[in-house]
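INFO batch 0412 | record 1 of 1 | parsing
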Amino acid sequence: MARAIPPAHRPWSPALQHQFHRLVGRDEGIGLVVVLGHEGCGAVGAARSVVDDGNLPTGHVGDLVQHVIPSVLSAREAGRLSTDDIEVEHVIRTIDVLLEHSTSIADRVTDGRAAVVGMRYRLAEGVADLVAARGLPLEIRTA
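INFO prediction complete | emitting tokens
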């Protein structure tokens, strides 16, 4: 199920929450959730533009971009200015939002029945790099 997490200022999508509860909220549910970002993400590029020049797109695109803006700001505050860095930051922040808004996933991660990992897909190389992990039994070095 590939969907963007709704912006923090809007309620957690009932349809998305239902799917997560259905897949993760039962004993035989899935044990791994992957948040996958990718290089060349248009939403990240648009969010950078909004931060730089203030021109927010309208409609659904604007909603998605508003969700990415905190990742742009957070990365910049930490001195990470490249688009790659912002894409990684956004994957990490998306995991945090997911765990904050979905108690069924967060509970499973806390008690060791599930894990959430974040990856960034490099299109040109066809490689996905691990950038974050929550709930895995092994210590994993992340970007």
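INFO post-check: The domain at 31-134 is CATH 3.40.1050.10 (Beta-carbonic Anhydrase; Chain A).
INFO record closed
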